[in-house]
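Suppose a colleague, Dr. K., hands you the sequence of a protein chain of 219 amino acids and asks what its three-dimensional shape might be. Before reaching for any lab equipment, you can write down a predicted structure in token form. Begin with the sequence itself:
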Amino acid sequence: MGAVKLERPWLEFDLGAPMQVLSWAVNRPGLVTARRILWREVKNRDLPRDLDVEDWLAQELARRGASDAVAFLTSRDVRCYSETKAAAGGVEAQAVATVGLSNGERVGRRVADYASRDWGTINVALRLSAGLTQAALIEAMSIAVQARTVAVIDAGHMLPTGRATGTGTDCVAVAAPSGSLAYAGLHTEAGEAIGRAVYEAVLSGALEWKTTNRRAEHA
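The predicted structure, expressed as tokens, is then:
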């Protein structure tokens, strides 16, 4: 499986080989070929209102020699990442997640004002061992997002609009070799492995975030 390396403010997930990666990440979104997925930790002071964030991140990646990477931005301390592996039949899935809920939202509703808060966000990278068609990769993304959402609901973070289902800046990247596996839904081994890996990684991260923030509130 892939190797995870922490060099704060960076977190790197080396996929082990170039793979097709589907995401809406800040750097190299869409369907691309990449060998690694990166997180860049930021604070509010790093991103002033008039900053071109995409250009800034591109420059940061270039300095690291990682312009080819799919890359996330997060205000979550990257040392708090969670990693989970799951297998079903012959399919293995590995999920790496950073989870913050400070800008949590409930789907279909919006909290009125997050201007004064940090952007906590949830970023999930998933590596699948099975070779997928592009259609199956899209289906794999749907399972990963479903698992992320269920994990956030089960974590029980309450908002004025109800129980959070995610944050306003979540991002997911799904990586897999190109192959002939045409389906990755809930009835498949791939779907089972994806769902369990992502669910456990996000739930672990969400519960850790809640514990940390509860301590801070009572400090």
